Every structure is written in C-alpha cells, then in structure tokens.
Amino acid sequence: MCEIKIKFEKKYNVSQHIKTDKHQKNVKRKNEQAQKKVQQLLTNQNSVKSDFNMDLCQAMVSANIPLNKLSNNVFRTFLEKYTGKSIPMEATLRKGYIDDIFNSTLDNMKMEIQQNKIWVSIDETCDVKGRFIANVIVGILRPDCPGRIFLLHSEQLDKANHFTICKLFDKAMGIIWPGNIKIAEQIRGQFGTVDELISNMKKIFRKAPYRVEMFKLEAPGIKLPPEPIITRWGSWIEAAIYYCENFGAIRHVVNCLDENDADSIRKPLLNYKKNVLLSDSLAVVQNVQQKFSLLKGNHGKPVLTKLQTVFEKNNGLGVLEKISKILDGEDSSELIDFSKFPDDYSSDDIVYFKYAPITSVDDERSFSAFKTILSNNRRAFEFQNLRKHLIIQCNREGNVQEYSLNLVTSANCKKSNLFVS
Question: How far is CA 332 from the centre of its chain?
Fold first, then answer.
C-alpha cells in the first residue's frame, strides 16, 4: 500500500512503519475507496521503483516544474485526491528516479542515432552565473523526410576556445559510441586523398636528414611533419590539422626537393586543392543578400561589407549551395564535378542533405530551455543535475513535433538577427 520495502526480521521495523503518518493516510484513503466501491490498482510489490513515481518525475521535469513543488501541501493534497496515490517527496524523486530517467533518455537517443548519418552543431553561451555553457545538438539526416533532433550533451567549460570545443565534440561522440568511437577511423577511410598525403609526407622525411634540413631551412618556425600512429586515432586527426594549417609552406618545401630522389615526392597530392528544406534555407539567405545589396549611406555600407566578408569566409555555404542545386535537378556538368567537393562526398551522400540545417538555431533553442530552468529561485542547481534536467526536458516525446514546426520561423529570425548584428 505504501509501495516501499520493510525488513521483516524484527517486528519493531513493521510496527514503526505502521505508526507513521504516511501509512495511516494510506489506510484511511483505502478505507474511503472501499466504501465507494472503487478498486485500487496496486503496483508490483516486488518492484523496487514505483512506476507512478517514475512517471510523475518524468512529467514534472519534462514540463519544467520544480520538484520542490511537491512539498506544497495544497498541490500534494490535490494529487493524492485525484490519483489515489501516495505522493513522494522531492528528495525521493531526485535521488531515486532522476538518474534512471536521464539514462533511459540517453539510451533511447543512442539507439536512434547510432546507425544513421548525422549532423552535429555545437554552440556556447554565458549563463547568469558567469559560467561558459556549451550544448551539443545532433540531428539525423534522412533523404526522404526531416530527421529527429536531440540535445545530446551539455557541458560547463573553463573557457571557450577551439581546444575545449574539440574535447567536447570528442566526449559527445563517445556518448553515442562508448568505447568504440568510429569518427576518426571513418574520417580516415572517407578522406583517402588526405590519408595518402599524410602517408607520403611521413615517407618523405623519415630517415632523410638532408630533407629534414631542407625543411628547416625553407620553413623556419614550423614543426616537422608529424608521424601519426594508426592505433592512436587522435594523432591522425592532429596530422590532418597540421597540413591544413601549414599547407602552403609544406607545398613550397616539397617543390624544392628533387622529385627523382623518391617516388613519394613525385605524387602530386599537394596540388589538390528542422525540418526546412536546404533549398528553402538557402533561399532565405539569398533573399537577405539581395536586400542588403540595396543598402546605402554611412550606416548601410559597413553592414553590407560585413555581410560580404562573412560569406566570403564561409566555404561550407558554397558547398551547400552546389548540393542544393543538384537536389533541385539543375543539370550542369560543372555542378556534378565532384572534384570540387570535399574528398568524401559522393552522389549517394548528396541526398542526405535535403533537410540539412545551415544555422545554429537548435543550439540557441536549447540555451533558451537552459535559461528557463535556471530561473532566479533555482540558482543552487549543481550543474551535473542541471544537465540531466535539461536533456530530459529537451528530448521529451511530444516536443519533437513542436520543435520541428517552429524551426522555419526560428531559422528565419535567427538568420536576420545574425546578419544584422
């Protein structure tokens, strides 16, 4: 009746429980229901956790209702009257049910994400307590319909820079594939040209003192090319980043070497240079561009210059524009020339970009939920508990459709605000 276990070895334990207010209230409630000929539904007595408590906790967290509201006598009386259940205290739910709901939410996400192509968005904000908070949003890419969007992880950072964001990305992917992170090996397999470049450069300078000396002479201040170890997948990623940052200098050094000296020098690898349709998202961007091109005067021209600078630096946007034209059926040999795309792109992959997002709207929406939870009277929240509440709330069932329907409007507003500022 009280949905708890009592040690029966000593009579004292049972007698003590019978005298508690909780037990006496439950007895009184049962007698009243018997008089009204109402059959009481009991939970499984062998279960340690109560299904009612579990559902109540999940409902309150998903609706962002503070668990301490259960200590309000009027609210407790209301729930007890109309549910016929003994209402647990805040501490019971926080200590016994939050972790289970959080883990269940993560398990459901991993099951749905693991075998699909995904996009990842990471953004950071500063909360009212001065902490750097970063959220990782993951969405499923599908060729025929919009995929679900999840808040995968939330993290408090010491500071926000490329290193902490990289570590956060690695940690988030480890949630999806614990103990078996597939990212780096997949990247190495997809980027065959980059892998061959790294391999050849490793051969060029290994056990070649003359070439090493040439490198130091022609590229002073730059470290020698790294020698990644395949079993340490992070070293391959670091090597790829190294060549990306020092591509021009490396190419100059190799051009100074005698190509007849080794076969690896002859290889010409260094010459290689929510639900909104991608086309609709890009149409919004193009519309903004057209309107901004009409800006004049002392205030308008700097804004237009800033916009043009942002677009010029965004190489990925150009790739998405080409992909969008292919999906729209524009027949052009130039557009279908995959040598102009990143190395791992193929015609089979293009269809998954039909609903690819181009903004960080999803991250911003998760920050809105974060700030709603962290209201003025809830500042004592420890971040590890705050993270669990946030992920449960943002990934609750029934929120996905609402999330998707509002994405078009949110994306349009986000783009406008981004470009104006």
Answer: 35
